[in-house]
Amino acid sequence: MATEKEGGLEIAADKYRSFLHDEAQNTEWRHGGPPIFDTEWAKGSVEEVVQNAIKSWEMELSHKTRIQDFRTINPDKFKLIVNGREALSAEETVSLGSYNSVLKSSMPDEFKYYKAHEETFDSADDAFRTALPRGFPCEVVAVYSGPPVITFKFRHWGYFEGPFKGHAPTGEMVQLFGVVILKVDELMRAEEVEIYYDPAELFAPLLKAPLISGPNTEQQQQGTASSTSLKNALSRTRSYTSSPEQITTFSMTILVHVLE
């Protein structure tokens, strides 16, 4: 990236904001200085190492088809565990794809608002690429322990700018947070990945908008079923609870486990 000199400091030019550093010494900034839009983890820090490893693993999982071509995992020991479910092997994870591996569920169909067993790698990829056309990147928010057992908090985020399962886009940001326990070998290859997150953070904003008007398509039918599942889950909380606090706790418990 091109740089420019200013008061003895070297500042990276911003190709999207041409006046960001214009006459910076004479500008009064709301927060004491110009905003920084390219913040990164310190080079060589454990946070940078973890983030690079996660991004590389996601790239391989999304774009490589043969286990022997993966460099980020130990294929003989690798297993993926999501929200305490039964572990998936390397072969199963690659076959299902990143979305279906994480969204796979053993719940009854009536409680599912995403049926991973009915999706293929391509159909799942198309559904989320359509809904989140600018991507759904992952960033490491905090690292709590370093290798060989790495524990970190992550954030996925994107903008809901395309239809999802028949539901109209809202243009709003969709984000979810989670925690990962990652066991690696001496080559920093993943041997065991445990992911814990709340799927309701992802699906609540994707399903809250009304169905798109028009012919009754299969996607719209799936969207209707998804909305019904959410309503059923919430309505059952009223049958088993008596106070607002209990309803809130029980509702979140059901939503967290819908995809388990």
Automatic annotation (TrEMBL):
The lineage of its organism: Eukaryota, Viridiplantae, Streptophyta, Embryophyta, Tracheophyta. Residues 214-237 are annotated as: Disordered. Gene3D superfamilies: 3.10.450.50. It comes from the Eukaryota. InterPro entries: NTF2-like_dom_sf, Pathogen-related_defense. PANTHER family: PATHOGENESIS-RELATED FAMILY PROTEIN (PTHR31723). This is Pathogen-related protein.
